[in-house]
């Protein structure tokens, strides 16, 4: 038994992307045939948390402190340098954790691959490493630890506090509302190495690991490089049944909410405001989600947009900047953000915005279809530019969405040729 080919699609009808799965271990390999000498790896796991202990973020840090076969801190970067890699890195999002590496050529990549996966699947997770990396008390009686100091730098910023409370209001009783980086009080009193080990056992499994590779590299060479880690996985014995993360339906949102969040700042003369809505399901309504993205850009982008015209390009502005964002969860989140709002104007923005949107929706203010065509064309050109200038990340980010919310067996990654985008 080896790796079974599941599906092949093409990014914008140009770059082939192949998906394979190991019949022995459930390990998934996805290869995007991006041209050029660089080979990138994105080793992705779907991770879900339901508290603020920061277990996904904490575990991400501890992975780099050594593994069963290589039980020394720093050896991964040492091997990476010898394999012509530009180091290793990782990020933790609310719905997944991804470990990355970039090498010049495929030979070094294939040499580093089993070493990296040994760190991901079989880290040491020692108590001493946890104390040093996550939280401890220094000789001066102060809180220390890499994870703790990182969260200390952003927990009480206005953006972080508003964003967290927004997610908790939009996704009640859901993993989307957890602070995956960890709340400082939890990192001090609740987060433990035992919890980290249990979290690793629950989610860092071969059948939840997706090895995404972009570059000129042969699938057979990848499978050969994976043989040692496959043998090790099999030798560990059968694992308990795996429940795929993010399968619990998101609770319906019964009512609207208005919230005021206080946060520390050097001056008390301005604030920020987010107006958010539940959006289409990213899993089944991708066309509608794309339409929402285009509409939000029409409403907020450039000084000619309706929102900027009414809130920014006036004699007494309501804010210094307005923008929008989309969070592609299983049920998406759409929001318009206002920054640097003068104190006293924050209560006037939502009623005025509601009146403006109602006017557009009711037809009182007509859509500028010429400008809408320009917005769609610019959106299309940006998508093409991204695929041309940064194809590695562009393909990987699409694939990660498929990993999290696509079909478990084949997962048709949603790429449409740019020529189909029209009005």
Automatic annotation (TrEMBL):
Gene3D superfamilies named in the record: Metalloenzyme, LuxS/M16 peptidase-like
GO molecular function per UniProt: metal ion binding
Pfam families: Peptidase_M16, Peptidase_M16_C
Superkingdom of origin organism: Eukaryota
Family annotation (InterPro entries): Metalloenz_LuxS/M16, Pept_M16_N, Peptidase_M16_C
Annotated ranges, domain Peptidase M16 C-terminal: 192-315
Peptidase M16 N-terminal domain span: 48-134
Ranges in a coiled coil: none
Protein's recorded name: Peptidase M16 N-terminal domain-containing protein
Species, as recorded: Anopheles melas
């Amino acid at each position: 038994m080896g790796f079974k080919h599941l599906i092949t699609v093409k990014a914008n009808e140009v770059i082939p992307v192949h998906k394979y799965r190991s019949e022995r271990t459930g390990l998934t390999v996805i290869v995007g045939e991006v041209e050029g000498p660089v080979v990138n790896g994105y080793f992705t796991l779907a991770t879900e948390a339901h508290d603020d202990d920061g277990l996904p973020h904490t575990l991400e840090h501890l992975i780099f402190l050594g593994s069963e076969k290589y039980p020394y801190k720093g050896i991964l970067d040492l091997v990476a340098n010898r394999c012509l890699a530009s180091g290793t890195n990782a990020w933790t999002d609310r719905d997944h954790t991804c470990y990355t590496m970039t090498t010049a050529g495929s030979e070094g990549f294939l040499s580093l691959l089993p070493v990296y996966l040994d760190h991901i699947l079989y880290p040491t997770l020692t108590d001493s490493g946890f104390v040093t990396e996550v939280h401890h008390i220094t000789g001066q009686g102060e809180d220390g630890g890499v994870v703790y100091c990182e969260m200390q730098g952003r927990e009480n910023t206005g953006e972080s506090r508003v964003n967290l409370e927004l997610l908790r209001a939009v996704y009640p009783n859901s993993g989307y509302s957890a602070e995956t980086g960890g709340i400082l009080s939890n990192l001090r009193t609740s987060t433990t190495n035992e919890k980290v080990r249990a979290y690793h056992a629950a989610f860092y499994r071969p059948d939840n690991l997706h090895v995404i590779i972009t570059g000129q590299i042969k699938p057979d060479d990848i499978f050969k490089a994976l043989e040692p880690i496959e043998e090790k996985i099999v030798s560990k014995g059968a694992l308990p049944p795996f429940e795929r993360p993010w399968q619990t339906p998101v609770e319906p949102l019964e009512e609207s909410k208005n919230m005021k969040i206080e946060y520390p700042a050097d001056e008390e003369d301005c604030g920020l405001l987010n107006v958010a809505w539940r959006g289409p399901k990213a899993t089944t309504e991708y066309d509608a989600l794309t339409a929402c993205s285009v509409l939000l850009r029409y409403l907020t982008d450039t000084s000619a947009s309706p929102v900027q015209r009414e809130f920014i390009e006036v004699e007494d502005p309501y804010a210094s900047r307005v923008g929008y964002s989309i969070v592609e969860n299983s049920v998406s989140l759409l929001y318009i953000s206002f920054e640097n709002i003068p104190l006293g104007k924050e209560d006037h923005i939502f009623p005025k915005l509601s009146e403006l949107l109602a006017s557009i929706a009711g037809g009182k203010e007509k859509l500028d279809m010429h400008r809408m065509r320009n917005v769609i064309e610019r959106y299309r050109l940006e998508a093409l530019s991204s695929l041309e200038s940064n194809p590695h990340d562009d393909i990987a980010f699409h694939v990660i969405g498929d990993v999290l919310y696509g079909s478990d067996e084949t997962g048709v990654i949603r790429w449409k040729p740019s020529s189909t985008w029209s009005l």
